[in-house]
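Complex 198.
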Amino acid sequence: MKLPATIADRVIEAIASLDPATGGPADRYGVAQRAFPLLADVGGCCLLRPDGEFLQIAWDTSEDSPTVLGTIPLAALVVGAERFPWLRELVPVRSPQAIDCQTCAGTGKIRRGEVSGILCGDCSVLGWVVPDSDPSRPRFEIGQTVTVVLNERNRTPHTGTIRAFMWHHQLQRWHYFLDEDGKAISKRYAAEDLFPVA
Ligand SMILES: [Zn+2]
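Predicted structure with zinc ion bound:
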């Protein structure tokens, strides 16, 4: 995902402000990788590069070879924007058709037993989803840029443009197909799997 220039500049500034001497392991790693740690915990960290590349590392297994994603997973973006307001313009804006996510009751976080504050995968922590509302026309247009919502069905982040859509008679819903960086993604997506990107 190419970042807007203003945000890329903020990422560069944020990396420059990291202090490997006083910061934690995520800061040291950020300096070494020229990437800004958006999220870090005892298990690992997620970092953003000015070119929009997103690194995921687990401290115990992949410190030398981080997973590099071409885009920021939406959930990471939403959580990162809570701490770093300059990321907010990348977060999808709630549309009038959106409804509160039922899984998390609109909060973006869920509770499992004693553990609260678990990030909701069904809405990527946004707290809302867009239902498949109008069957007479698809929600997205050919060529429109969208990002894939990471959830139980979708483990692979993609941001691309709508290549085609198809009405599925049996399921009574539209399916969408994407191109990413000029290459066709074979997977088909439902409307709730996708968010428009400005
Ligand atoms: Zn939710």
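The chain is about 15% helix and 30% strand.
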